Amino acid sequence: MADELLRNEPHHALAPELATASCTCASLRRTTRVVTKFYEDALKPSGLTPGQFTILAVLLHRGGRRQSEISELLAMERTTLIRNLRPLEARGLIVGTASGPRHAKTLEITSDGKAAHELALPHWQSAQSKIIETLGTNRWSSLMRDLATTAESVQSV
User: Fold this and answer.
1) Closest CA to 114 of 48, 56, 43
2) In angstroms, how far is the first alpha carbon of the chain from the final one?
C-alpha cells in the first residue's frame, strides 16, 4: 500500500529529484523549523527559548521529575535536554539534585523559574492564539490529534 502511494505521488512522477517534498521526515522537520522560529520570536522578550519554556511548564505542572523522565516525556535526546537545562540552571530557574542508587538527577522549578514562566506565558499564549487563529480551531485540533497519533505510532514501530 505504501509503495503504491509513493509510486503514485505526483512529485515522483514529475520530478524524481524532488522526492524529499513528499518525505514525511523532511516535511515535519521543515514545519518544525518554521513553527519553532515563530515561537522563538514570540518568546524572545522573556529570555526563554521554546524548549526552555516547555521544560519549565513540565516542571511547574508535574512537579519535580528525573531528567530521564523529562527526556522521555518530551521525546528529547539527552544531549538536547542538557543543552536546554544548562542555561535554566545557570539562571537559577531550576535546581537539580542527584539521588538514588544511580545518582539520577531530579529537577525542580525554583521560585525564580515560576516567575520566568509567568513572565513568558503571555508571549506563549499570544503565539498559540495566532497559530490557532491562522489554522482555525478545527484544523488546529485535528493537527494536534494527528501529531500525537503520528508520534505514538512511529515510537511503537
Assistant:
1) 56
2) 17
Half-sphere exposure of residue 59: CA atoms within 13 angstroms, side-chain side: 30
The pTM (predicted TM-score) of the whole model is 0.82
d(CA 135, CA 146) in angstroms, rounded, equals: 14
pLDDT at position 3 is 55
pLDDT tens track for 11-59: 555 455 555 667 888 889 999 999 999 999 999 999 999 999 999 999 9
Please give the C-alpha separations between residue 146 and each of 28, 54, 90, in angstroms, as whole numbers: 12, 20, 36
Report helix, strand or coil for 107: strand
How many CA atoms, within 13 angstroms, populate the side-chain half-sphere of residue 127? Answer: 18
